[in-house]
User: What shape does this take?
Amino acid sequence: MATIEQTAAGVSFEPSEEQRSLRGLAREFATREIRPLEREYDERMQHPADVIAKAHEVGLINLHVPQEYGGLGLSAFDGMLVGEELYWGCSGIATSILANGLGSGPVILFGSEEQRATWLPPLVEQPILCSFGLSEPGAGSDVAAMKTTAVRDGGEYVLNGSKTFITNAGYAAWTVVFAKTDPRAGHKGMSAFVVPMDTPGVTIEQHLEKMGQRATDTSAFALQDVRVPVENRLGEEGDGFKIAMATLDFTRPGTAIGAVGVAQAAYEHSVGYARERVTFDLPIAMHQGVGFMIADMATEIEAARLLTWQAAWMLDQGHARKATLYSSFAKRFAADTAMKVTTDAVQVFGGYGYIKEYPVEKLMRDAKLFQIYEGTSQIQRLVIAKEIFLPRD
Assistant: This one.
């Protein structure tokens, strides 16, 4: 259902009727179920279990679970259309809903038939969560520095270590945990395991209090002599780095479009305020300094959206490493655009923009995280620079 198609007249960007309906459903859900709660849940740092359950009921979660396991099997592009609208509602609540795509991604992409049949259908049957356990206190961008280990013991692996900055981990039924099966082999020694979070030895150490996206649980957890069967390993020993990077490639356009959704919300608030706020006997929209600022917002949001659309389309078309490059283009540009647009939105609101009573203060806090998680803006630049200066066949 990719929107960007080659036609007799050239390239078409016209969404299909089904895509328009899907996007409309997501916008309606965001308007009705998310927007009324965004401020309260942000202030209380509340896990939005009620909203997740409603999203599950209408089919706006687990978007990429294949149809043979009960899911919708949506493409990266179609999932991105949903994501922009939910993030427009509230990026914290939206991340809580959509992070199952990241958590289940390794199973969808690399799980055996038996593993998929075990772990995916329950996600569709009930509103349970899963998470993606890669980052550690000393291993964020440099994942090869991870210290968590997995030692083979007969028909089991014994895991020891700690993870942090893990979305939804505090409420997840299971997590794909990345660990070193060969600590001497760097990133080639990483492996991936599905770990039920109620396994003895798994302990949630802290629900981390964040600056923004506060309605999303972000937790640290420890693994002490955690035993999982060999059947829970995804792929072969040493496949962990490949699994992690491929999963992030698939989800990165979804993260980028989240930044677009936040920027779009800030832009709309700015336009509304600029029309109503009067200074020097004119709406501030009529002052060139404000009007030009909002014009730049609109231009940069549209550019970020189209770049993200292209990245998702390339993933769906199977463009492999070129799609990886475009995903980095999209993530870097959209994240930085969201930060710029929300900062400018606070400026448009003036002193009121800095007050919690007004919406743009929260949007500015929320936007910052897009420059950090799922690969910082600096890491995206590193990926892009390597492709420019060190191209591979």
DSSP finds 13 helices and twelve strands in the chain.
